[in-house]
Design goal:
CATH superfamily of the largest domain: Bordetella uptake gene, domain 1
Largest sheet: 9 strands, mixed
Distance between the termini: 60 Å
Radius of gyration: 23 Å
Number of helices: 11
CATH architecture of the largest domain: 3-Layer(aba) Sandwich
Structural class: alpha/beta
Number of strands: 9
Helix content: 40-55%
Length: 325
């Protein structure tokens, strides 16, 4: 067979590139109609990440006409799901829904299996909520100042949503700043708040979703939120910074991610659709019922936020010595 000339070879390469470009453009224009979009959640059914994923998946189906499925892959603090999506094709048909643990795990685990800033495209920041410190009604402390003073006089313990969660690390930061020792007792996320309601622990640090109903029912007392400012969802509850502890702006958040290499045009399109879904009245109402709020954001804005979160929590993990074997 006669070998192609240099000109013919160059032409073949250009033609292939052209076909590839057409193929990529076609794939982007078809999204999400070509096949079902799989949304992989790093935690089990009923977790707030799962609830958010299902709300957004339903609305995406309604607004785009595509089919969106939710797959729960719990385990290792979300690392199992993260590994699955990392290996997926970068074509917009596999999304990862994770929590703030996405930014914490690379520092917390000996081998989380991913680089938070290189292996994924930060697609969109979903709803977020400050962490909240609460106490059992029998605990005499009425605010954070009194709680710190009590911790200096008595041996206290606090329930958190698990080792290495921001609910754990927020209090560890506070302990260092206040120079007090409070024993950490890790629970499963759904059980931490129940431990305080039942009186098994005098205080807790959790995200707001499980705490708000118990606060409103009078079964626990809110002490402070860990954001720099008060939460609009509980405006009567002061922030940690109001008591003189600076640099506290700790949130539990939900994030949407795509595998690295996903074309920017497709990233922008999916980002716009997710923002549209989150801004629908029914979505916002559900977020508020969970004690969470969302704000429209671009992929670039989420990327800037994520980079700061990775740095912050990496430093906290290092300073506290927290780790998961």
């Amino acid at each position: 067979m006669k070998k192609p000339t240099l000109v013919q070879s160059v032409g073949m390469v250009l033609a292939a590139c052209g076909l590839l470009g057409v193929s990529m453009a076609s794939a982007q224009s078809e999204w999400p109609k070509a096949r079902p979009v799989n949304i992989v959640v790093g935690f089990g059914p009923g977790a707030f990440t799962d609830v958010i994923a299902r709300v957004v998946a339903q609305k995406l189906g309604e607004t785009t006409g595509g089919t969106f499925t939710v797959e729960n892959r719990p385990g290792a603090g979300g690392n199992i799901a993260t590994g699955q999506v990392k290996r997926a094709a970068a074509d917009g048909y596999t999304l990862l829904v994770h929590s703030v643990a996405y930014a914490v795990n690379p520092s917390l685990y000996p081998n989380a299996g991913y680089d938070a800033l290189k292996d994924f495209v930060p697609l969109a920041l979903g709803p977020r909520t400050p962490n909240i410190i609460t106490v059992h009604p029998a605990t005499p402390a009425k605010d954070l100042k009194e709680l710190i003073e009590l911790a200096r006089k008595e041996k206290l313990s606090y329930a958190s949503s698990g080792i290495g969660t921001t609910t754990h690390l927020s209090v560890e930061r506070l302990k260092v700043a206040a120079k007090v020792d409070i024993t950490h007792v890790p629970y499963q996320p759904a059980q931490a708040i129940n431990a305080v309601v039942a009186g098994h622990a005098p205080m807790s640090s959790t995200s707001m979703p499980p705490a708000v109903p118990q606060i409103k029912a009078g079964k626990i007392r809110a002490i402070a939120v860990t954001s720099a400012k008060r939460s609009a969802l509980l405006p009567d509850v002061p922030s940690v910074t109001e008591f003189g502890y600076t640099d506290f702006d700790d949130y539990t958040w939900v994030g949407f991610f795509l595998p690295a290499g996903t074309p920017q045009a497709l990233v922008d399109r999916i980002n716009a659709e997710i923002n549209k879904a989150m801004e629908l009245p029914e979505s916002k109402e559900k977020f508020v019922s969970l004690g969470m709020e969302s704000t429209r954001n671009s992929s670039a804005e989420f990327g800037t936020f994520l980079s700061a979160e990775v740095d912050k929590w990496g430093a906290v993990v290092k300073s506290t010595g927290a780790k998961v074997e």
